[in-house]
Amino acid sequence: MDIESRTHQNIVKKESWRTVLTLAYQSLGVVYGDLSTSPLYVYKSTFAEDIHHTESNDEIFGVLSFIFWTITLVPLFKYVFIVLRADDNGEGGTFALYSLLCRHARVNSLPSCQLADEDLIEYKTEEEGGGMMSQSGFAARLKSVLEKQRVLQKVLLVLALIGTCMVIGDGVLTPAISVFSAVSGVELSTAKEHHKYIEVPAACIILIGLFALQHYGTHRVGFLFAPVILLWLMCISAIGVYNIIHWNPHVYQALSPYYMYKFLKKTQSRGWMSLGGILLCITGSEAMFADLGHFSQLSIQIAFTSLVYPSLILAYMGQAAYLSQHHGVENEYNIGFYVSVPEKLRWPVLVIAILAAVVGSQAIITGTFSIIKQCSALGCFPKVKIVHTSSKIHGQIYIPEINWILMVLCLAVTIGFRDTRRMGNASGLAVITVMLVTTCLMSLVIVLCWHKNIFYAIAFVVFFGTIESLYFSASLIKFLEGAWVPIALSLCFLAVMCTWHYGTLKRYEFDVQNKVSVNWLLSLGQTLGIQRVRGIGLIHTELVSGVPAIFSHFVTNLPAFHQVLVFLCVKSVPVPHVRPEERFLLGRVGPKQFRMYRCIVRYGYRDVHKDDIEFEGDLVCSIAEFIRSEAVVAETNGEDERMSVVGTCSTYMKGVEDVDDDPGTSEIRSPRAKKKSKVKKKVRFVVPETPKIEKETREELMELTEAREGGVAYIMGNAYMRAKHGSGLVKRVVINVGYEFLRRNTRGPRTALTSPYASTLEVGMIYHV
User: Which of 202, 511, 678, 713 is deepest in the core (most CB within 10 A)?
Assistant: First the structure.
């Protein structure tokens, strides 16, 4: 199974209608789980405190009108018709928008960016491909200002991080409110004083089971997700139609905006405060954009417009029709979802609701893992262990540390609040903040990436920003009643992200300022003044040029090194995927006889990092291919290094190949046919038997083969960061306390390479930044 080629095929494939419809069906379980379960708690949260259901029905019809137009304007118009078009080579989400802006305006937050990265196929912007018009005067000025003003670049990064932190906060709140609301159906079947003793323990047990099973991956039960949500949507729409026909066939009149005016006129400030509950009808809308990479734009649009949207509208209309004929409300829980379900169907619907809530929670948990992986790849989150739970489904990952943190926080919210009103206040603020961030970033995308007139961006911000600001203000006013939770969570995660990003930048600056000149290497002679031993030494560095200080620090204390040295830089670029044929940038460090190479391995923020055995095989094979295909071997004097793009083993059909063989084999022969890629423990290089291969080149390949059989050692730098003497208090706290705490308690640089413990050597250095 070649993950890289499979991923690339998923991006460029031309989809047939059968494929589109299949993806639309599958998207029900992944994308729409959260949005589909919102009828469980919207009316209950809305009527919890601020407004009351009266005989005139002005409140219930006004709420229905607000729900209808909110779902129509935000998920349908904004996301389905506009935002989904702003994909980053098929990927969506907050970081996809930020990645687009990074490429079009060159505001990249990654320190190790190179001009060579802009030659990547997926990096190229539309105007470079000739598909778009040149930028307008305002767009060019805006781009120039963003590129020059570092403050604006930081503001843009913080804005993207705020949206990301709120998504993580939603990953805590959505499972809590979804499962708790589904379980609350037992309140109609038990005594009033007993149901609270059942709801919380039952919800906690389900949540613990949900998080405990994450390490198995969703692919084992993923085939059940779409049928569960499909059954749930059919269930709520059928119940909705029944309630409309049986209780109030004229409820459709409440869809008129006039009822919103009547609602606000009658309830005034109380009605405005109740908008925080109405807002919950669009929770999960961001998932349509965030999960775009797993499906396609057309499939998500078809699923929403043909099934999800009408089912939700019918469900809300049915609840309103029932409540318009039932005014004997003793407690707010009597306005919940289950009261409108026919009594004979309540237990089956309860089971389906719990299953749908679990599916919706699973989707947001997986999405949280995915966005943390993106943050980590772009240097905005500490290194964490990422486990790929499926070899067939790209993007199915599991992060143990984050999983248990989410579980603890989710249980704390459930036990601490114990009611949907405060959970709803918390969830609503997280959801609407992410939408506001998306609106702000989209306005820049419209101008800088789509090259539209500035008035389109202004109209987009004013129209959707006004709607979302209204809901945001209604949610923020409930700060003391639960809305403080997403703010507190976001501030904690934002502090972690900003601290790690700042420390990473300072560490890179130190590396650049203290790197060793290549001229220093030349002065050492061919042996570099040290003893060369059998094997390959991979020196991990963040630098894309020059020799890292760790090398001189090591040879000063231990004057021996491997016969082949590779300065290895594994870095992320602001694109979702890097194609296998563009994976490696290779060049020489020093003269040819030094047997020293520089290898820059480029990954997109959604790419799968290979394990150590595959990575070693690809790396050594690509170095061999670089040696073979090098047309002119020029000795490098100074800092200028000639770099060549080399793909993975599976991308070149001629030249050097790796073949599975017994240990100890170092034979060189001609290739017959390209074999399928598979995991190997030993490689040998197969080069064409032709006079064009110089004797010197053949000797270099033989020496590389010998070194590979001698083993690969990973040399890592373990930097202890300290603020310089005389630094300010804030900097000392951030570097000496914050960054060092995160560095000591998270994964080290070995995670980026997935290098084996037995072959890893860490070299400690103190960085005074």
Answer: 511
How does pLDDT run across 557-610, given as a tens digit for each residue? 777 778 888 988 888 887 888 888 888 888 888 778 888 888 988 888 877 776
Q: Look up tokens 């960061």; give the residue.
A: 721
Closest CA to 486 of 767, 726, 748, 171: 171
Cβ pair 398, 389 in contact under 8 A:
yes
Q: Output b/e per residue, 734-761; b: 16+ Cβ within 10 A.
A: bbeebbeebbeebeebbbbbbbeeeebe
82: closest CA among 575, 443, 453, 465?
A: 443
Question: Rounded distance, CA 721 to CA 517, Å?
Answer: 23
β-strand 643-646 against 657-658: which pairing, if any?
Answer: unpaired
Q: How many C-alpha atoms does 362 have within 13 Å on its Cβ side?
A: 31
- 8 A C-beta contact, residue 30 and residue 241: no
Contact 603, 671 (CB under 8 A): no
Largest interatomic CA distance in the chain: 96
Q: What Å distances lie between residue 656 and 24, 293, 638, 703, CA to CA? A: 43, 34, 30, 14
Cα–Cα nearest to 7, from 288, 399, 370, 393: 393
128/225 Cα distance (integer angstroms): 41
Q: Which two tokens stand for residue 175?
A: 């499972």
User: Hey, what are 383's tokens?
Assistant: 């290194």
Residue type, 450: W
Q: What is the pLDDT of residues 154-175, one digit of tens each?
A: 889 899 999 999 999 988 999 9
Closest CA to 528 of 704, 586, 537, 631: 537
Helix axes 58-71, 258-267, angle to 10 degrees: 130
For residue 398, the cross-strand partners are 387
Q: Which residues of the chain have pLDDT under 50?
A: 1-13, 126-133, 330, 332-333, 631-640, 653, 659-683
Name the phi and psi angles at 757, rounded to 5: -60, -40
Phi, psi for residue 539 in degrees, rounded to 5:
-95, 110
User: Please, which residues bridge with residue 767 across strands?
Assistant: 721
Instruction: Report the alpha-carbon distance of residue 267 to residue 276 in Å, rounded.
Output: 14
CA–CA separation, 696 vs 667, rounded Å? Answer: 17
Structure tokens at 484: 């403080």
Residues 6+ apart with CB under 8 A from 3: 391, 394, 608, 610
CB 482 within 8 A of CB 280: no
